Amino acid sequence: MAGRYEQWYLNRVDAVVVPSDPTRDHLRELGIDTTIETVPNGVDTDRFGPVDDAEQAAFRERHGLPDGPLVGYTGRHGYEKELDAILDVAPDIDATVVFGGDGPARETLEARAADLDADVRFLGFVDRAELPTFYATLDVFAFPSPVETQGLVALEANVCGTPVVGVNDGALAETIADDETGYHYERGDTDGFRTGIERALAKRERLREACLDRRDDVAMERAVDALADVYQSVL
Questions:
Q1: How does pLDDT run across 47-81, given as a tens digit for each residue?
Q2: Among 18, 147, 188, 201, whose Cα sits 20 to 30 Å from the Cα of 11?
Q3: Do 19 and 101 fall within a single domain?
């Protein structure tokens, strides 16, 4: 019933705005035939950006994180996000794995992590004021979720200078620019995920510069301008 109402409603508006082409394609498959415009969500680049070494060191100290490479994720711990994929590769990468956030899958993830030969830390909820430092302190942001409409946290990580290794599925297929802002791997390919993380760790500094060079491309101001153009087109 809800799906039929949504179809009825969306087909009666002048335009539908979505944050990614895969989301647009999904709506087409559901029978939405009105105009659909893709306007990616912008990132607040005044809030999210690079953080100096001293602040990163203080973040590690506050949360008991060791020196050395960090690979992590923050966001909702939902089963649909397939975060188990991060634990699949954790024993085979030379890094501490850090989870920020919370959700229904957290208890299961923590139980499994306890049995792994890997250093895996769960920080719980990370205050929004600390998120830029969390992103910037990571060497790689790991993002296996195939259900994102855009994957805004990937862009937040990028504008803080952190490359993302994510699944080549859903919105992340276009959010990540291979060998610029991170790497893709195919869903279910554990070896590919591990290889992507290892490549990102090895090329961390070059990828960091590429991520920072693209900050203006994903800034909120650009998204607002694009949205204004959509409104203007239907007046």
A1: 999 999 999 999 999 999 999 999 999 999 999 99
A2: 147
A3: no
